[in-house]
Amino acid sequence: MDKETLQGALAEYFAPWVQALNLRVEGFGADGVTARLPQSAELSRVGGMLCGQAMMAAADTAMVLALIQHFGEFRPCTTVQMSSSFLKPLSGQDALVQARVLRAGKSMAFGEIDIRGANDGKSVCRASVTYALL
């Protein structure tokens, strides 16, 4: 697996509105993927804060990339559960979305996501997810 393959998966497997988030794969390891969500006016609400909907879409997308990394290929899946906690607002900087596979079996996968400010490294959102592998 390499960054180009993971980046290419965004165009191949995700809807145009997800591609419009402009996520960029920053890195990957044995258990996950880190993607950058660029700051933009289109994803911000009053006061320039990144909106929660954008964070959740980025988290879900990064987790699918982490599953691609984990399995070495795309496996069709669907989100069964996603629970999030918003810790503090994020404004004036990109977000780093770190998705980590906790366990992946034959029919289910579990993961966690930490979204941090790219400049200050402070965690702004934590999410846990469950996927059905199809």
TrEMBL record:
Gene3D superfamilies named in the record: Hotdog Thioesterase
GO terms for MF: fatty acyl-CoA hydrolase activity
Domain Thioesterase: 52-121
Highest taxon listed in the record's lineage: Bacteria
CDD domains in the cross-refs: PaaI_thioesterase
Pfam families for the chain: 4HBT (PF03061)
Keywords for this protein: Hydrolase
SUPFAM superfamilies, alphabetized: Thioesterase/thiol ester dehydrase-isomerase
Family: Belongs to the thioesterase PaaI family.
Protein name as it appears in the record: PaaI family thioesterase
Organism (species): Caenimonas aquaedulcis
